[in-house]
Structure formats: C-alpha cells, structure tokens
Amino acid sequence: MILQEEAIKLLLYLAPMYFTNSSAMLFGGKTALDFGKKFWDAKPILGPGKTFKGVFFGITIGTMVAIVASLLLPQKTVAFGNYVLLGFLLSLGAILGDMVASFFKRRNDIEQGSEVLFLDQLDFVFGGMFLGGFIYAPDFYEIVFVMLLTLVVHKASNYIAYKAKLKKVPW
What pTM did the predictor assign? Predict the structure, then answer.
C-alpha cells in the first residue's frame, strides 16, 4: 500500500512536467522565441524549435493537468501543499530547462534535432524540479527515480511520436 501511495505521488509530481514537455512539442510552431536573432557569438540564441506557441501551450496544459488533478484527487495532491502552484512552477521550469539546454546546444554548434544524451531527456525535469523546489523538494530517492523513469519514458514516447510522424527524429 505504501509503494502504491508513493507511485501515485510521483506520478502526480511528474504529470505537469511530462504534459508540458509533450504539449510544447505537439502544439508549438510559428514564431520563434528568439525571433531568429543571433547571440553575440553569431549563433542562434535558441533556434526555431522554441516558439511562443510551444511555451504558451506547454505551460497552460501542464498547469491545467495540475488543476484537474487537484480537483479529482484532492486527498493525494494535498501532500504537495499548493499543488496548482506547484504544477505551474513545474511547467514553467520544464520550459525554462528545455530553453537553457537549447541555448547551450546552440553555443556548442549542436544542430536543432541533434541528440545530446541525458541533456535532451532530462533538461525539462531538472528545470521543473528546480522551480518546483520552492513548493515541494523531492528527496534523493525520488530524484533518482524521476531521472531513471524519465530516461525510459522520454525515449519511448519520442520513438512513438517519431513513428506517428509527429517528430522528425526518434529522440
């Protein structure tokens, strides 16, 4: 029973970040956040893959997941304090973590769509955990579990998205 409770807690913790990350990819497009501008090193700031629509839909859907979960499972989400605020911070952090990773990839001449092992799979959870840490700080074992689960889920979901022709690359 305790294991089941912990699993539900971790799924509730992950849900806003996972939905944010996938929604930004699915519903993004059009105007790039950096407007196609270059950084002082003459390289793209973030690149065309980071868009206003992706940020808006990612954060909105991730936060909506937290709202729905708090309404449907109030006895479970109470463990996080203000779960809706946590969901917003996890969502915002997920987007910011992905943007930071893109910024550093552009600085190192890594093309959009090229994979950097671990960075591409974990950037959004690092960002989400950082900002979400103001509301709820996972313990060491929760962090390890989040990272290991995310490595598997991210690889599998991106492969499925690739096969469904929603992504150009399987990572």
Answer: 0.94
